[in-house]
Amino acid sequence: MPALTTTRILDIPIHHLTVAETLARVEAFMAEPRLHQLATANPEFVMTAQRDDAFRAVLQQADLCVADGIGLVWASRWYGRPLPQRVAGSELVYHLAAACATHGWRLFLLGAAPGVAAEAGEILRKRYAGLEIAGTFPGSPHLHENEAIVRRINDSQADVLFVAYGAPNQDKWIARNRDTLATVRLALGVGGALDFITGRAVRAPHWIQQLGLEWLHRLLREPWRWRRMLALPRFAWAAWRESRRLQPNGRPRQP
Known about the structure:
The protein has 255 residues and is an alpha/beta fold. It has 13 helices and 8 strands. Strand 1 (6-9) and strand 2 form a beta hairpin.
């Protein structure tokens, strides 16, 4: 595979990949005998990483870190290194489930509220003929459950793992356990994707997604998220300021 191109936004490397290229990388990963971590970053991730050193390290060390949020795609243009496409995590889970069915990879769903992962697994199994759900479990990212959850996943012989603990917990959990998940070759945090699959949450209409206003749709449906949404203008201001200081090669501009 060719070397990955990145745009570094506020110290977080975002890989230049389309959905198809991401899936090609995943297929290559599955042939290697180790766990690969995929992160689907958005502006909120980036701003959380500014004050959470452990989360920043996880994103920096992920095997793939793709632009889930359209804000990252827009910001990459300010840096003179435009990302090719948004790779939405809530859509990527369907592509990966289809790939699991095609290639015979066993999929484990971890997290979300009790019963959600099991229901999502059944929906995906019916949608993609041949998909094998290795297991489902709500669990939690707390340390006291860690050993039992890892044992459950290892016993399932899962190849691919979706973790729905929400960021940054899901991504930290994967990083913490990447050396003990014996059979998993790909793990990614999927946030609220299992709720979307089961219909407990509703994504914005496609035209709203195309306009980059999915955040507004979610805010109108879930107004209690307004504090979290403050990360968006803060991200835009911080990224714009940084982009003015840097050349496209990432070096400081000459005065």
